[in-house]
Prior knowledge:
With about 270 residues, the protein is of the alpha+beta class. About 35% of the residues lie in helices and about 15% in strands. The chain contains eleven helices and ten strands. The strands form four sheets. Strands 6-5-9-10 form a four-stranded antiparallel sheet. The chain has a two-stranded antiparallel sheet with strand order 1-4. Strands 2-3 form a two-stranded antiparallel sheet. A hairpin with a 5-residue loop joins strand 7 and strand 8. The longest helix is centred in the middle third of the chain and has 12 residues. The chain is globular and about 65 Å long. About 5% of the residues have low confidence.
Amino acid sequence: MSNCVACQKPLEVEVEFESDSEDVQMGGSSSKAPAPAPETVPDDVHLNCGCHFHWDCLLEAYQITDCPNCGKDIVSTFPTGAQQVLCHLNNEGGLQENLDILPLLTEESYLKAYPNERKCRAFLEFCREGDMQAVVGMITEDSDDEEEEDEEMGDDDNAGGKPVSIDDLLRYQDPIGEMQSGLHAAVQAQSREVAWLLLLLASNYPLMDFPPEVFQEAEALGIMRGLTEDKVDIRSLKDANGKTAEDLAKEIGGVWITGWIGNGKLAM
């Protein structure tokens, strides 16, 4: 097996697993079964220039178009003209050949430059996945939890940035993802729950026009609308193509045409 060109160590990593074994009675005393030995799994990013990296080593040294080891151009082009960085990735999930890792590399490089946006990007990803539980969890966590999280993450993860507020999360737009907002992401995921929640918290849509089920769910979660008149209405946010979430809903069609477009739930 080749070594990582960055650290010169074998292209593998140890993974420790927690033991679920119950206590074993031995001589009248309780004794826990020994923890299993760490398992070694592959950790090999084989770039198209021929160089091999650990994933973390590549992230640490990554440059936009060139291999950080040999300097060769590692970017190729899709038939559509879009760029890609193809590699063979071998890790605990198995071997994936000709995998485009440019989106991951771009995001990690961005977060390295702007670590204070990590929380906002996590929130946006939950909206993209339609993960209502995770979205609510980020919105409802109290200030003490946020302070503890910042301390655990360390100063580098929030270097040069102010603490992330709920308003920052709700109105965040993805600078490396066509400036989509959480509402764009929820519409694209066709997640009505997340979309209604965002409309409740970050729009001026009349409260009387919300379905009763939205209020029932919000009350159960301990969520209520604050003052929104002096804040940007999330329905007005446009992506890099000048499209609002309403415009995106029209393109997607399906369930979003009935009950959303016709009744103006997304339109200003």
